[in-house]
Amino acid sequence: MKKLIISTLFSVLCLSAWNVSAEDKPLDPAAGKRLYETYCFMCHDRGLSNAPRPAEKADWDKLLPLGEETLFKAVIDGPGHMYPKGISPVWSEWELRSMIRYMMDTVTDADSQKQANTASAADKERHLQLLHGRKLYEQTCFKCHDYGDLGAPKLGSLESWAGSKDKSMDALARSVIDGKNHMYAHGGSNSLSINEFKSMIEYMLSSLEKGWVSPQRECQ
After folding, report:
1. How far is 88 from 101, CA to CA, in rounded Å?
2. Which one is the CATH code of 2-118: 1.10.486.10, 1.10.760.10, 1.10.150.240, 3.40.50.1400?
3. In angstroms, rounded to a whole number, what is the distance separating the alpha carbons of residues 108 and 111?
4. The model scores a pTM over 0.70
C-alpha cells in the first residue's frame, strides 16, 4: 500500500512538473520541426490515413479553427489512425506543443508567402505597364502634355488634371479615342490600340502620385 501511495505521488509530481515546464517555457517551432522531421514526417508528409500535411492549406482548413489547445488534446488521445501522443509516449507536453505549433505555422507561412508572391507579381505587372505607357507617351503625347499646350493636362500637374483624374479609365480612354477639345481623335496616332492608350493614361495618372516629369521637360 505504501509503495502504491509513493508511486501515485511520484506520478502526480511528474505530471505537474510536465505541465508547469510547458507553461513556463516558450514554444519553439524550430525544435518542433526537428521532432517532426525525426518522427512525424513518415505519415504527415504523405498524408497517410488523412494525416494533415504541412503547408497544405486544404488539409488544415477544418483543423486550424479548432485552435491549438484542441489539437494538442487530440494528439494526446490519438485521433483516427494516430497512436496517442503520436508514436512516442516519452515526449513532453512542450515538445508536442512545439511540434503542433510548427505544423500550424507551415500553413500560415505558406499562405502569407502565396499572398506576398501574388502581390509581388501584381506590382511587377503594373511596373511593366507603366514603363510601356511611358515609352508610348514619350513617342507621341509629350509634345502637348509636357507643356500643357492647348489645354492638354500637363504631366505631373495635379491642378491641370483636376477635372479629369477622378474619371474612370474607360471614360478617359474614350476621350482620347473620340478626340477632345484641340486633341485629334486617337491623339493623332491611329496605330495605337485602346489598351495602349490606357497604358499611357495610367502612366500619366501615376505621375500625379509620384511627381514624375517627362525627360523632355527635365531638359528645358
Report:
1. 18
2. 1.10.760.10
3. 5
4. no
